[in-house]
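SEVERITY: medium
COMPONENT: batch folding queue
REPORTER: lab tech (J.R.)

DESCRIPTION
The queue accepted two submissions in a row. Attaching both inputs and their returned structure tokens so the on-call engineer can compare them side by side.

ATTACHMENT 1
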Amino acid sequence: MAKQIRFNAFEMNTVGHLSPGLWRHPRDRSADYKRLSYWTDLAQLLERGKVDGLFIADVLGIYDVFGGTPDAALGSAAQVPINDPMMLVSAMAAVTKNLGFGITANLSYEHPYVFARRMTTLDHLTDGRIGWNIVTGYLDSAAKGAGLDRQRAHDDRYDLAEEYLEVVYKLWEGSWQDDAVVRDHARGLFVDPARVHRVQHAGEFYRVDAIHLGEPSPQRTPVLYQAGTSSKGRAFAGRHAECVFVSGPSVAVIGPRVADLRRLTAAAGRHPQDMLIFALATVVVGETEAAARARYDEYRSYADYRGGLALMSGWTGVDFSTLDLDQQVRHVESDASRTALDNITRADPSRIWTVRDVVDQLSIGGIGPVFVGTAQSVADQLEAWVDATDVDGFNLAYAVTPESFVDVVDHVVPELQRRGRYKRDYAPGVLREKLFGQGQARLSGGHPGASHRIGATKIAAE
């Protein structure tokens, strides 16, 4: 039986997100990112389309690698100005009942004790529909903004992340027993102190001696997303991630990454299907193939290529302003994100990328495929990608918002439902249950976070 296809909407609390320059399109509303109604309207639209979640990207710092200045990023609105994604969630949760929220949060510049409370708060306020996209950052400008000379080395950031996860697991899973909140009116006892435990941690990067501040939330630990697909990132995902976001321009790039992620998940002692994998994609739909192609060409006419190269320079650490358009892009080791550069240098040996190719790719939707056509042909393309790569679904970026998402909800979703490849309703329960099945509100027993659950060591010993 063919697997059902899952969708997340891929957004950012900024202008344009992955399509720099498209804010100029007369139908684009991304410049309304400052208005709460933009987000509540979007959430309701996505829930109507039975979309699994709104995956909100984020970045700390400004893209200033291109030309050594932030001018290109500022002029083109390449992910700047940008606001905090977490501040949006409560309002969107209030107007929906099932839509999940995958929130990107950089762990490099916030202590886990403080961060753990923020996520517990959101898990409560969403009735268990919150997820965390774990990132460590890739811009030196963020480190400088936080008072450092530069960011940590790429692989060192994952060492930091390992310990960070250990601390938040202890706080979320091991501080409060499930029955700690007794609400005993007769005794005047709200919390039984004997059922609340102090977390003590002394590691290389963090020291904690504290009780977690929030009472147990529906999921305890939020659903864990991760997006790094460097070798270090894939190993980290195999141990921790429940959902992984991969980006790449072709089946030849994505297929091997998916297979490797499944292998690493199994090597970590987890079932390979305990991980859902979403690939970046953008959809452009028309009533006919010609109409869809015309719409795509119209979108491209608004693209800001300097903005795209500003993004690519920041992602890779390579200053693309120093390269000629017809120059081949070669691999260079840097402490920025390695996935983006791998996509155009090493992931598919059969293809040689020039800067001009990169400019063309980045005009709409970032380093991912753009599926153009009627609802029927787009559904064909989505099915073919899932069947060829074993991804579980897509993080759908937009060219023009909300138009791109409206087209998916009104045209592509019904077509996939007719084919039996897309759900007709949400599963009950919290986000983790909607994704993995009823009775799975908490981390699975094979997950390393579950080992910090109160009583886990004793149960294992027995």
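ATTACHMENT 2
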Amino acid sequence: MQIITIEENDANQRLDKFLKKLFINATRALIYKFNRKSKIKVKVLWEDWFQKRDNDFKIWLWDEVKLFISDKDIEELSARRPVSIETGLKKSFDKKDIVFEDSDLFIINKNFWINVHPWDFKSKEVSIIQQVQDYLWEKFNSLTFKPSLVHRIDRDTSWILMIAKKKDILSKLVEDFKNHKKIKKTYLAICFWKLPQKSGTITKKLLRIENAQNRNKVEINEKQWQIAISHYKWIEEFVVKTKNWNQNISVVEVQIETWRMHQIRVHLESIKCPIIWDKAYGNKSLNHYFEKDFWVKRQMLHAYKISFFHYWEKKNMELEAKMKKDMQDFLDKISFDNKKY
């Protein structure tokens, strides 16, 4: 028999959902059976006794749950193992990618070519959220809540990524992302050609193509559209000298007001500055040349800065994540070549 005191991350949920998260190896039928046979009782904060509750009874902070189950059965039903052991994959999270951590948030500089969520792109590879949960295993003691993604990002984009350690913080930040409130995201892109001007705003409207197969998922469309607003700013410019031509390369900072799928990629291509190695919206012949001669293996796009309101600290925060090594090496290479001429 055990008595569990409900703490912050486990409060405000149905009893049956709490028990299913607690007993991860139990079927829902077994949990209902436990409750039906009065093996689960709850004492609310203002009462002095435990009693049987319905499955949909909502448990709150400091309520107590008594389990009339043997310690051995509790251990077997709730046994958890680190993700890397569960999946058989040993790829682990690199703590060098931590940008910020406190009791509420875990913010990292996500690598490219890794899924943010299990089973994205129908892949069985371990995801970044699995790596993070594995990494935090020892010091995260909630019974039913795991550190969770606040937002998501493309697999082949490197990015500053927010993960919430507390359920209430997760809810508030997810809502901010949905409403585009108190959140600002800033990207760095390395593009072909010159910008039309040092800074500007792109307001071309976008249409998302559902079930796109032999066409791009997003296109500019002024009739059937979603409003999309991107602000860009010139950062740096280089000239790459090849045997047959001189190729201008622009480093661009982009801040987006609306968060449409592929918005930055489509908008930059629309002003004749496609992102290098963007296979969907970029220049295929130039992509091929830079892949062959400069070893560019993914789109040169990095979400490097995020501004948000920290609800526990009650203040605005702005964090930056360094450019990943492949992008920085590419810039160092073309910068060195520019100095030679």
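NOTES FROM REPORTER
The CA atoms of residues 210 and 248 lie 35 Å apart.
No errors were logged for either attachment.
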